[in-house]
Amino acid sequence: MNSAELFDDLRLGKAEAFEFIFKTYQPRLKAYASRFINQPDDLNDILQDCFVKLWESREKLTHISISSLLYTMVRNACLNFLRHQMVANQYSIDELPNQQGSEQLYSLIFHHNAEEELVYEELHRQIQEVLNSLPEQSKMICLILK
Q: What angle (nearest 5°) sits at the alpha carbon of residue 101, between those of residues 100 and 106?
């Protein structure tokens, strides 16, 4: 099967075409993505998401190289994952007193004496309580943005 036929079959929703693409490209894409992502579970999630997006958007695709499309999707997904990790690791409410700028100014209010420390701990507890009451996706968004 040539690449034009494969592409057309994918656009038509033929499972055999998608399976062929998956079996052909998944090992290569995994090796490529492993240069960016070390955690096997995260790596597998990224690849799965890329193949799901390919399947879901198959009808919108124009004739392009499937290989180029998949490598671009995986590269972008890896970069987005790494950006997310950097942001998530950089900002934690527990590290608020160590942050520069306005966060540092805000945290100074709570770290002068024991009473203010208790107020800070209560605020932290209330924030965690509110976060825990949110639906999982909303919670994830808040954690990403904090």
A: 100
Give the separation between CA 85 and CA 56, rounded to whole angstroms.
26
- Kindly report, residue by residue over 38-77, the tens digit of the pLDDT: 899 999 999 999 999 999 988 888 877 888 889 999 999 9
75 CB burial (10 A radius; 0-12, 13-18, 19+): middle
**Residues contacting residue 99 through CB under 8 Å, at least 6 positions apart:** 91, 107
The separation between the first and the last C-alpha atoms of the chain, rounded to the nearest angstrom, is 49
Q: What is the pLDDT of residue 120?
A: 63
- Look up residue 73 and give its two tokens: 């999707």
Instruction: Report the C-alpha gap between 134 and 139 in whole angstroms.
Output: 5
Find all residues with CB under 8 Å of 8, minimum gap 6, and list them: none
